[in-house]
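A protein record pairs a chain with a discrete description of its three-dimensional fold. The following entry can be read in just this way.
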Amino acid sequence: MSLTGLIPFYSFPIEEPVYVFTLAIAAFFIGPLLIKRVGFPGIVGIVILGALLGPGGSGLVAHSDGIILLGEVGLIYLLFTVGLELDLQGFSEDPQGAAIFGLTSFFLPFFVGTAAGIIILNLEFWAAVLLAAVFASHTLLSYPIANQYGVTKNKAVTAVFGGILFTDTLALVILAVVTGAVAGGLSPMLFIQIFGSVLLLFAATWYLAPPVARWFFQNLSEESYFEFLLVLTIFFAAASFAEVLDIAPILGAFVAGIALNRLIAEGGILRTRIEFVGNALFIPFFLIHVGMLVDFSVIFDGVRTLEVAFVIITVMVVMKAVAAWVVSKIQGYDINELGLMFGLSTGQAAAALAITLIGFDIGLFSEAVLNAVVLMLLATALISPFLTERYASKLALSKEVEVDTSEVTDPRIILPLSHNAEAQRRLLEYSFVLKGDNKNKPVHIMTVVRPQSSKELEASVSRVRTDLDSFKKIGNQAEVPIDVETRINHNPASGIVQGAVEVQSNLILMGWDGSQSFSKRMFGTVIDQVLSKTTLPVHIARLGHPINTTKRILVVIPSGVDRHAGFFENVHFIKKIAAQLGTTLRILVVNDDVEKYEHRFGLVEPEASMEFVAISGWDVLLETLNDETTEDDFVAVLSTRPGEIGWDDRLQDLPAELASLPPASFTIMHPREDDPEYDRQFLRFT
């Protein structure tokens, strides 16, 4: 047998798809493991291996059309996840933060870079303008690091994420202006066309994507991978529409991420799946694509390449640092936030590559400039992740000091389930929202079976266990541990309460179908008995729509409920739900002092956008809910148990009255009994 038969890829570079894909996946695996040993972030390892494997290094692997395609897909995927992770609530509370950072971070390097290009590098005016636009923008190359350390909700980080909307848009607008000027077509009509295209992209994506996704999530209970495919379809359609409009597709993906942000709950199954596929496959292909653009020979390609590279790297790094410092002084950010803004904003790839290649194609840039920009990409691939990991880790540590123990952030939830499959799934997804970002402690799912004849009992238990095992798969998808248990008890309420004691649960979450017992209890025999048999907090939820499609949360506060020992714990849960879903809180205070509750809510983490409204009575409350709410709203009622502090007799009938109002979903939150010390840990200052 010939050597060709034994080693079909004996000629280099390797172009056979299976071998190329195998080497790429190996680079995704080996690169981060090796580079972390010398103190660099994992994504740098992928970029370096891409450079070593590619044409500019060993030449082992061809920078083929397949790599380019998957790299561009990864770039679009990366920008979509950036939009998806954007803290819209914080952005809406402080939009000027993103504007200040974006404009400062762009125009300082742009003006200084243009002057340096003309004076130091002797470039023509339009070439200097375009080259300055290359490094005035930034790509969130180190976004996965910020996401890994859980600091993407920080206001300084949100400003950088929002700022990319300004920097990349401005860079691409300047590209369009320069190309028009070079072609002799600079005119008012060109400006109208550019700004009109951007406005049309925003309007079309913002008004079409959310209603389509919301309808799908609410009406089609298919396997969750169909939801994933729908999301992919939406953001690639937005990217394609941007390309049709002659603007960068990454801008379309970013806008789609923002549009779907509030529909894809953090910690949910869909969000986890999106992040897993992106971080494991598509984003690494983008990184290896960037690495393969690096040509190590450019270092020896004459003095001109090194001269241009030195100037643009120096101007970019210095002016990005100055911009971060200026913004930190204006906004009052600390040193770790300043460093993290600097690290994130020095990343270059997306707009830089697009602008450089177009400038080269139209004759504005020489090969020396092109090679210098590629060298800048390698430098920023080292600088940006290093700075980002350094300051993100410090910021995360400082944040952990302020956040309380895992008992607060990761509740042990027990979830008794019935036999309605769709209701069960919605309750489970709601429990994931209650847990938030911390998912170490399991959700304990339980079903209580009443004793029957031997054969009937065996069949019932077997059927229930089969149903419960399916929820382990859902938990695996959301990366939340799930424990399941089948109990046999004549009294289901006793079985639930005993199970909560045995697993040391600190929250019982139960579903309600809207029916009441003949004895006119609040919910029905089992739920009411659970309330009477336990001092644990008990949340009773009726979910008429998936929790991630919630547009707004309305909170009902009965008079005097703040004097109950478990008040602050439930406030924490309410604000946590709002933070996870990215929604606002409209807090309806019935027959009590609004300012008092504004102060009480302000004492509890996390941050949330809140509006307090005084309600003069229960009839007015029902009229308000009927007139102001829609089926996509979610109502949370803080209700003590009958006879306890904060109880009002109108709370007896409130669940049934809520069931007839427009909001399809609501929860009645009964606080923990007789443990004021436990409640104190939810306060900012104890």
User: Anything to note?
Assistant: Residues 1-7, 400-406 have pLDDT under 50 and may be disordered. The longest strand covers residues 443-449.
